[in-house]
Design brief:
Order of helices and strands: EEEHEEHEEEHHEHEHEHHEEEHHH
Largest sheet: 8 strands, mixed
Structural class: alpha/beta
Distance between the termini: 31 Å
Number of strands: 14
Bound molecules: alpha-D-ribofuranose
Mean pLDDT: 97
Radius of gyration: 18 Å
Length: 309
């Protein structure tokens, strides 16, 4: 099985469950508060491990002990974390997450030590990139470092997956040309391409514009509608598995991890898309980020049972 390297953020999530999202200037009361392990990078690394991948993780954490639960999760999921940077005087990143009654979330991140997962650190650890087959990255750490990692990984012949979250205003074409799979959600695709938010035609047009600019393949995650794969050979839609939605946090992270694991196993992309939809479907039926990530066995059971239904 191919080796996956995830580079990205580690956060502690402060999760507030609310009936409805507060409007500007409004104060609302939360029914429940939870402190949970999160961060897009950590969620993806943990999910890769839980789904059966061979995975290493580069990230930066503070010396405040806040990352300890995330690190325990990494060990449980067999994620190699020996090269994570600890900023003794720094604070671990935090995310304040509001989840409403319909399972939608809004997130504000204070990056803290994640800002030190930078170009200098990644250059110092480029042997981790040399040692992997697949690089999986998001954009919750300094973008120059991630662009360096993408460019270097591509030059070294690695398969690169870019999850453009949170979404910058633009991604240069020379970076897109180094990316084998870019995986925006609808909102991110709209921000990157200005496409119409209409399914399927507007979404397909947006994805095609990323192909024209150099991306290898585009996978658009579409929440309850599933996901769309757009390549030079054409476009295909993969429906979501029906699940009761509790909390969409880390659904995208779980999807991206499953995509990386499926590709690492050399499976057909159609199979991988179904697998990724199933894994993220289970994640939305549970609360929290890493707390919602299913194991490989859970995804396989889920697919077998639903497939028979
Ligand atoms: O993608 C979900 C994650 O985004 C949360 O865990 C939070 O930490 C933010 O990074």
């Amino acid at each position: 099985m191919k080796k996956i390297l995830v580079i990205g953020s580690t956060n502690t999530d402060f999760v507030l469950e609310v009936e409805e999202m507060p409007q500007v200037g409004e104060t609302v009361m939360s029914k429940f508060f939870h402190r949970l392990p999160g961060g897009k990078g950590a969620n993806q690394a943990y999910a890769c491990g839980m789904l059966g991948g061979r995975v290493s993780f580069l990230s930066a954490i503070g010396g405040d002990g806040l990352a300890s639960v995330v690190m325990e999760n990494m060990r449980r999921a067999d994620v190699a974390i020996s090269q994570i940077r600890t900023m003794v005087e720094g604070s671990t990143g935090i995310a304040v997450i509001c989840v409403d009654g319909a399972g939608n979330n809004s997130i504000v991140v204070a990056p803290g030590a994640n800002l030190q997962c930078d170009c200098e650190y990644l250059k110092d650890h480029r042997e981790a990139i040399d040692a992997c087959d697949i690089l999986l990255v998001q954009l919750e750490v300094p973008i120059e470092g991630i662009f360096y990692a993408i460019t270097y990984a591509h030059k070294m012949g690695k398969l690169v997956i870019l999850n453009p979250a949170p979404c910058p205003d633009a991604i240069p074409d020379e970076i897109l040309r180094c990316v084998d799979y870019i995986t925006p959600n609808e909102t991110e695709l709209q921000k990157l391409t200005g496409c119409r938010m209409e399914y399927p035609d507007g979404i397909r047009e947006g994805a095609e514009s990323l192909l024209r600019r150099g991306a290898g393949q585009v996978v658009v995650t579409l929440g309850g509608k599933g996901a769309m794969l757009c390549s030079r050979g054409g476009t295909a839609c993969f429906p979501a598995w029906e699940v009761p939605v509790k909390d969409t946090t880390a659904a995208g992270d779980t999807f991206n991890a499953a995509l990386a694991v499926g590709l690492a196993e050399g499976r057909r992309i159609e199979e991988v898309m179904d697998f990724a939809n199933a894994a993220s479907g289970i994640a939305v039926s549970r609360k929290g980020a890493q707390t919602s990530v299913p194991s490989r066995a859970e995804v396989e059971n889920f697919m077998n049972c639903r497939g028979d239904a």
